[in-house]
Queue: 3 jobs
Job 1
Amino acid sequence: MNRQLILLLLILILSIANANENQKFYGKQNNIFSFKRISQVLASPDGQQVAINVFQSKPDSLEKKWDYSLHIIDKVGHVSISNKINAISSLNWSPDGKAIAYLSDGKVFQSIWIEDVKTHTTQKLIEFKADISSFKWSPDGLSIAFTAEENTTKSEKSLSPIDISKNYRNHRLYRFFLGKTNTVDLLTQANYEVTDFDWAPDSQSIVFSFQPQIGARYSNQNKISILNLRTHAIKNVPYTINHTGTQPSYSPDGKWIAFSSNVEPSEFATQLNNDVNLNNRICILNNRSMRTHCLANTPNENPGIMGWSASSDQIFVLDAYKTLGYLIYALNINQNIPSKIISNMDGFIEPLTITLNRSHEVFGFGYETVSAAPEAFISKSVPFKLQQVSHFQSSVKKNTGTTSVIHWNSSDGKVIEGLLVTPINYNEEKKYPLFVAVHGGPAQAWAKRYLEGCDEYGQMIDPTTCLSNLLNLGFIVFQPNPRGSTGYGKTFRLANFADFGGGDYQDIISGVNHLIKKNIADPNHLAVGGWSFGGYMTAWIITQTDRFKAAISGAGNTDFISFSGTSDIPDYYVEYLGNTFWSADKLYIERAPISHVEKITTPLLIIHGENDVRVPSSQGYELYTALEQQHKSVKMLMLPNQGHLPTNANIIYKSIEEVGAWLKKAL
């Protein structure tokens, strides 16, 4: 046998051995559809029943699609399941606990449906003349308040010119009287773009937040008013004349109204609702004197209201904390008492699932760990103690990979934190191909989550960073939280101001260097990817270095100037760079990947949603066209009928397969 044949056989044997070793990670690639996902967990008013909104896709079906179901579990563990044709959301128990309402598609518009808990009969309660966006049952159970756009029709496109400055419809507040056929009252006029609301305990008033104008660019200009349902008089909250106000919430005794506010007056006429200009505090309004005071803050300085304690002396809030994800804090109405953590867990609370029931005594939420898939849990608000109520994942094989918190020094000496995800058979003596996963935001953060999942927000799933897919390909995964990330306080969130692609880039690259220096990562097999801001940073990274062998940019900004004229948040870079491009365009040009496209040598996969209004697909087209004209290695996937993140199960599945195929270029 000649030497060339022997060498060829050795290469083949080593390749097979390496493939077999990779398969030991989990045994199956693209396995994210093997478990049920939880959208919402809500305890009944008396805490004796728990409603769980669940969706899943059959793992073995060729054509992936989401199946939806409503599970109701009673105090002895008996489960009733109602399968749904369409997605459901916004679970809301009736005050007497006999029925549960939710939003789902009607014949034409999104409507309110109601299910009798005892008989499990379902009927459409309200189909309005427009999509209903949100709703709440009145405490006395006699009516339902809801928000919906002004009268709309889902008809063919107009053949007449459209004035885009007037092509908007406000979300108004309405009241539906139960027991009276089709009786709906309009509560607010066109000058209010209603964003949130809450009922007074006596059902005689509604407090609501509103924007002065329609559009995401005005979402940090919310004010708060109180509507008297007897007189129809609207009273403005004085504090929010010069400050913002969102998430209004009545205390159970009716004496206070809590709301989230940016305590620093706005500097711009229009601002994006992001963490750069937010120093969020929870403030409370004395309902009699109309005076406001703000409470102690959380360490991250960006809390969101969950609800009041039953005793009306504390407000429960949720805020990010480093790689732990989200913690629940209690804020006393006495501003001199510091915030207190009431949830102390190693696992991850999914923030979109969490609720506080009508009696203010029971939390419900989806909870997961690195090795355990999400299940529904409840806890008393005081004292906080986890109680598992679902057992959806009993047949799902537990993941036994490892997620470790790591720290390193950036180029300027700043200590940066992140996560390193390794497989079950991780060998410390071996160097591994490294995938660098860049999170979105930038004011988001990686946290320890179930290793069979992805970066997920309900049905919105980022296909670029699904951990089991990456591990099965043979990568270990590095998840850095560079400056600009949330969970580390306002100063750290502000540290990337006017410095996109500067310090944050150095934080990521220094982390890669740290892993190479410790003989963990193989410098010859590096890949990078991410979605939204992560897509931008991926494109930016490969304009600055040729070290990466494959890259995936999902919904990434590539041209800051054109983005500012086409996105639904045109002030994004005004906020992050400090000025408009026509006033100071230096950073708009210098820090945009499109300005350095000639430097890219890394094979790049670009993915965009066809209907993305946040980062329009034109951003991807610009980069793709420039690279294609230079005959560079580039591919672009357009996800049909998808927005900023894909929600269609089959498209997500196929996208993950495309990601896997592309990343093999780095191996």
Job 2
Amino acid sequence: MIPKDPVMLLSYVNTQLRDFYASFSSMCEDKGLNPEEIKTKLAGIDYEYDRARNQFV
């Protein structure tokens, strides 16, 4: 289960990307997550995925 709070979600996703996954899409596929839902939640707190950094910034 992933956090519902956007700030906690940001921390969780960026940690997963940093420690375990080469890309956001591979993380979502592996965990069975909806990437658009995550992007929308994080856009609500002004974060978007930076492919070059492999982080939401």
Job 3
Amino acid sequence: MIQKSLGIARIVTHVIVFIILTMLTQLGGVIYLISRRTHPLIMQKVTRPVLQPLVKIAAFLLIYLFSMLLIIPLLAKPFGRVPLPIFRKDGLQPLRLSTCLLNRHYVRPDMRHAALDIAMKMNRFHPGTVVNYLDGGFPFFNSFPMLPHLSHNDGKKLDLAFLYIDKASGSPSDNAPSVIGYGVCETPRPGEINTAESCREQGYRWYNMLQQIAPQGNKERYVFDSLRMRALMTVIIYHPAIHKIFIEPHLQTRLQLESDKIRFHGCYAVRHDDHIHIQL
């Protein structure tokens, strides 16, 4: 009876791990199942029981990294997806490497070209500026959900991080305050439109969800760079490939931006005063 219960517990554990990895990375669950094929060999070759779990984890990580770097980009092409650069290219890079490790940096070829073009044009206005991207999409299939996003499911959407000044040095920074890329917000000043408060009063409590999750400890080290942000938004607005932009209304007003491309994303989404959403 005990052995049967343990067997059921193992199966449930594997199912949970598979689901979590699939939700986070799309292919992590499949790679987890593939890595389990190495377990009999590991059990045979690694005689010390205390080391066996560590070797199993190492096997999974090696297979995962190999797949992420070499296999998935090739398989994604027939689905119309290409990866954004993992390392800095033409002024474009991921804000956090975890975006790439989780396979959330795949977009349509037109979006990749647009993102690189936007970064290069920004460097003409403000040399040395790094445009940091956040979540794009998964490598395979339309309509596959990428939480917590509502629409990042077709390779046509990409989030970009805000630009900041390092408060200590007073110099433009190529970093951002959020450790996850989201949730550290440039909140409304007195007299500005407070969409977050309005949405909360209407019962949309998840509108502020990421702000409640993300650590806020780095916020005081950075200052919102209005000058470069206005330049970045102008480049995005005038880029012919970009047809829709989401940013919080109070920042649109503060940066004096006028464009039919800028839309309000609705209270059913999450707030956009921590990043820019662009889409083809």
